[in-house]
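Sequence and structure are kept together here, with a separate record for every protein. A complete record is shown below as an example:
=====
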Amino acid sequence: MADLGGFLIRFDEAQRSEFLREVRDLEEGFSDALSSADWPMKKWEVCGLLFEDDTVTHWALARRTHRFVTGKAKVEFTNVTKTNISLEAVEGGISARVRRNMVSARSGVGGRVPPATWRELKAAVGVVDGASLEILERLERLRDQSGVAIHRPGAEVVAQQRDATGL
């Protein structure tokens, strides 16, 4: 598993957060315009989503697709899975480092949680909720596999046929 760290995204606009949580079934996946997405386009990233103050309410894979003129970027979220992890319960000594990197959906302030801090966060999540750690590790495996070329018999033919039909 690649040691890349991850993102924690705080949806800090009450109206938008309520809309996303109540109008949509988040587990079906969704997209949103976020300020200053810090990751490379078309690369999947593991994210903790905070729709409540100081609580990771969902784990997901996310990727930035394109930037808008307004300085925001469209971000797609998939494999969204509910959890309920209080940052107070998991932080201990990593509190300041996790909070410093938390991305604000409104302002874009924040960035990737560095790999060492992410490992500490995962270890703390494992102590608090083993099932949530399993979800997080599954998403990391999916992220790592998303960049791997498919080398199965017939994969090249399928790719050529897909290009030929415009799918």
Residues 93 and 120 are 9 Å apart (CA to CA). The longest strand covers residues 72-86. The first helix runs from residue 14 to 22. The chain is about 40% helix and 30% strand.
